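Following up on my earlier thread - several people asked me to post the actual chain instead of describing it. Fair enough. Here it is, all 226 residues.
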Amino acid sequence: AVLARTQEQIDDIADRVRALGRRAVAVRADAGSPEDTAEAVATAVRELGRLDTVVCVTGGSGPKPFLRTGDDALRDAFDRNVVHGLRLVREAVPHLVHSDGASVVMISSAIGHLVGRGYVAYGAGKAALDHAVRLLADELNPRIRINAIAPGAVRTEALDAFTAADPSAGTAMERAAQLRRIGTPEDIAAAVLYLASPASSYVTGQVLAVDGGLLASNLPMPYPDL
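Reply from S.P.:
Thanks for posting it. Predicted structure:
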């Protein structure tokens, strides 16, 4: 089952899955809506018969200087990066518990454990998500494994547009990674597959960095010192 707000995107992904000879259900849902989340999980179980794996990609919050980051922005970052994802997990657990190999994979971010100027709200949210994964591993054991992936920069359409407009920024991002490149969606997908599959059956409560070996954010904001 594919869940997202944009019908066109989930229909496209579902079609790709069907082209591989697999069943796919496209469910339009807003992660910010408790009702949508509950109905989406119920629809997936109803249509597919069971639930074995949940891959949760929720979050987002733009960079901003801390002194211009108000309470509302902090709450919004926490909601987007923590509450929305944990809500999905909470709805899924009663179904996952019946699986013989249940796995939850949360998509976090490298900024949850690295330093990068301008990312207090977003980074704090992802750090909270990372620790929630560790805490949940204890609560959900031994029936359900839960882990997270912390990607660095990934070549999405948005990032490609950004680096096309400022090639020097793209070069700097590549140099900041020890592997000297920006990640690809396939890099992240491979890590998700590992954590979702029996290959990681003895792994839970972990945050797997998939960032090319970053030691700090490779996109810090050029905000001045105090």
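The chain has two domains: 1-49, 51-210. That should answer part of your original question.
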